[in-house]
Design a protein that fits this description.
With about 130 residues, the chain is an alpha/beta fold. The protein has four helices and six strands. The longest helix has 11 residues, at about 55-65.
Length: about 130
Amino acid sequence: MFKSEMELIDEFKKDIDTIFKVKNIAEEIPFFSRNIDMVILNNQDEIISIEFKLKDIKTLFEQAAKCLLCSDMVYVCLPQKKIKIETIEKFENIGIGILMVDDGIRILQEAKVSQKSFLKSKVRGYL
């Protein structure tokens, strides 16, 4: 369905308020040697990082895990498709949530509040 990550992100943004109460949003936020795809500041002043991916789930896990250092919660966002139970468990074990996008957004797994977040000031300035 999606030909690029940007198409996935655009579809996600159409329904973002059904999932998150957005106060502010920023995209492509520099964090160490890479960028975080999207960072949201919600109405409770929580920082939520989201990494989008069409494929290559192995690199997605590593990217999302780094976001735990600068966020209250972290989600990965994928197009609607089958996802292996082992992959879901891997994300769940470190507290990363999973969002699926098709004709709207669905939470497959809720994110847990990060216990590793000590660098929030690095991204808060972009919000």
